[in-house]
Amino acid sequence: MKWTKEDAMTLGDVVRRIRNEYLGSIVCYVYQQALENRPLLKVLKTLCLTA
Q1: Where are the domains of the chain?
Q2: CA triple 29-15-45, angle to 5 deg
Q3: Would 9 disulfide with which of 2, 13, 26, 40, CB 3.0-4.6 Å?
Q4: What is d(CA 1, CA 14) in angstroms, rounded to the nearest whole number?
């Protein structure tokens, strides 16, 4: 979905849209890593999701 000046959006709309786009990017990244047989712990570490 493209950002256009004609779209009247509230701040909340913008935050939701950015969150959805970011989440979609993360899902795509994880999927690509899985296709390349990357270890799960390495992917989680890259995403800063492990201690």
Answers
A1: 11-46
A2: 30
A3: 13
A4: 12
Q: What are phi and psi of 39, to 5 degrees?
A: -60, 140
Predicted TM-score of the model (pTM): 0.69
- Say what the pLDDT of residue 9 is: 84
CA 18, CA 24: separation in Å to the nearest integer?
Answer: 10
Check: CB of residue 43 under 8 Å from CB of residue 30.
Answer: yes
Residue 22 identity (one-letter amino acid) = Y
What backbone phi and psi angles, to 5 degrees, belong to 48? 60, 45
- Minimal CA–CA distance to 44: which of 29, 36, 16? 29
What's the chain's length in residues?
51
3-state class of 11 per DSSP? Answer: helix
